[in-house]
Amino acid sequence: MNAGAASSRPERPERDWARYFRADDRPLELMHAYFRVHRYHPHSHDAYSFGVTEVGVQAFRCRGANRASATGMVMAFNPDDPHDGHSGAELGFEYRIAHIGPELFAEVLGDALRGGGRVALPLFREPVIHDEHAAQALLRLFGSMEEARSSRLERDERLAEAVVAMARRAGVTDEIRTPRASASALVAERARDWLEERYATDCDADELARAAGCSRYAMYRAFVARYGLSPSDYQRQCRLREARRLLRNGVPLAQAAGAVGFADQSHLTRWFVRYFGITPGAYRRAAGVDM
What we know:
The chain is α+β, with helices and mostly antiparallel strands. It folds into three domains: 2-176, Jelly Rolls (Sandwich); 179-228; 234-278. The protein has eleven helices and twelve strands. The strands form two sheets. Strands 1, 2, 3, 4, 5, 6, 7, 8, 9 and 11 form a ten-stranded antiparallel beta sheet that branches. Strands 10-12 form a two-stranded antiparallel sheet. A hairpin with a 2-residue loop joins strand 5 (48-62) and strand 6 (65-70). Helix 5 runs parallel beside helix 8. The radius of gyration is 19 Å and the shape is globular.
């Protein structure tokens, strides 16, 4: 386990801080942070994201409604679940959040519940959960990841405990949630596929609408309805996800910025912080990459 810190825990609570941890060999990441000023730009993760609010209130918008997670509550974001986030109280909030790749979640759940084999991925109906057992299971996982002296066996056990605790609170499965796509959804999917293949391209709305096979307005409306983000936000998110991968692999920051379509290093850094709450440098340290 490698650990990187965006900053040390401050003596003055009014200052934002964040620490980031990343598993060496699996899609598992953790952030422990206090935010009073920072505001997340609307974004999603390509992983399950489970957070526990430890102090204060975190306010956010998700699935068309305003939400709030107060002390002891659990946040549950499905993969690609758009949301933002900011302090819901004057004194800010402290929380821990784990990002667990869907393939790892399915592997651990299948092993825990069936002794191996594939399982249908669970999905969460509500992004805020009141469950002390699940919260404590997540906190034990966080503790094992943050403690350098904990064994890999202990971390595996804590991960299984947390995954099972959260899966029991899921409302539906991915198999149930996937209906036949409507014409509007197909338009959005064509636009998404184009953006994912050409995320570094500086395209305009006309070009994307032609790829989707409709007008600019119809494309925009269908995309937001399907994915909860504007096409430009989705494109930027694709760039940032690829930038994370490049940084983990040791690509210099300036080179990564150019490769994924950002104007320069500072442009990438600004958006990286707005989406992920930490700097690219802190993320590189968490990934064990020398600066």
